[in-house]
Each structure stands twice: as structure tokens, then as C-alpha cells.
Amino acid sequence: MSEPSWRKPFGIFVILALIMIWAVLVLLASPLIERLPALLQAVVYTIAGIVWILPLKPLLSWMETGHWRKF
């Protein structure tokens, strides 16, 4: 049996940190966003809700394989 990898617990910590940092950034931007028309606000918040996922693919790959990109 192989020894457990430290990458998965560390990766989970990084994911949670990324989510918290992104949430704080969106929160700080909310006074500017609330000045926009309601439809544009919905678009901005939808994009903000999706963008934080982008760095997860390489991070999840690293957690699983130890490499940032699969070859």
C-alpha cells in the first residue's frame, strides 16, 4: 500500500482559500456592481460565480498526479 499524499489535503486548503479570497473580492466590488442596472448585475454576478472555477482544473490535476498538466 502506498503512503498517503499530502497534495490532496493541501489542495483542499488551497481551494477553500481561493473561494474565500474570490468571495471577498466580489464583496468588495459589490458597491460598484450595485450601481449597474439589474440585468447587468445578474450578468456580472453570474460571471463572477463561474470564473473562480477556472484555476481548479490544473489544481485538481496536480492534486491527483503531482503534475500541473497531464501529458
UniProtKB/TrEMBL annotation:
Transmembrane regions listed in the UniProt entry: 12-33, 39-60
Keywords, comma-separated and alphabetical: Membrane, Transmembrane, Transmembrane helix
InterPro entries referenced in this protein's UniProt entry, alphabetically: DUF2842
Protein name: DUF2842 domain-containing protein
